[in-house]
Amino acid sequence: MAYRGRMELTMQITIGSSLQIALFVAPLLVFASLALDQTPLDLHFTALELLAVLVAVGVLTLVAQDGETNWLEGVLLIAVYAILGLAFYHLPLAAVPVSP
Q1: For residue 16, what are the CA distances in angstroms to 9, 10, 22?
Q2: What pLDDT sits at residue 96?
Q3: What is the 3-state composition of the chain as percent helix, strand, coil, each rounded to the nearest 5?
Q4: Which pLDDT belongs to residue 77?
Q5: What's the Cα-to-Cα distance from 13 to each of 6, 50, 70, 88, rounded to whole Å?
Q6: What distance in Å separates the CA atoms of residue 11 and residue 68, rounded to the nearest whole number?
Q7: How many C-beta atoms surround the C-beta of residue 23 within 10 A?
Q8: Are 86 and 37 in contact (CB under 8 A)?
């Protein structure tokens, strides 16, 4: 759709997919971890995870606010993704839950 110049529809699809993941898949994984007798997965997030969500929402708001986009905003989104990826890669092991 973006290739055809329908950026509004592209943004709606992208934001809608992200919301579906956040509101459906995450709680589903919690119940699946209980059903599979694995280490229980809970919705207790670390400070870095909460910061990542806030940064992602903030950048999305900045990009989607004017209703149009350009290559520089795409580079901004990729840069934020890379920075968050590096932050989680270098997360100390003490913050990662260890199975008993």
Answers
A1: 10, 10, 10
A2: 55
A3: 70, 0, 30
A4: 87
A5: 11, 24, 18, 27
A6: 10
A7: 10
A8: no
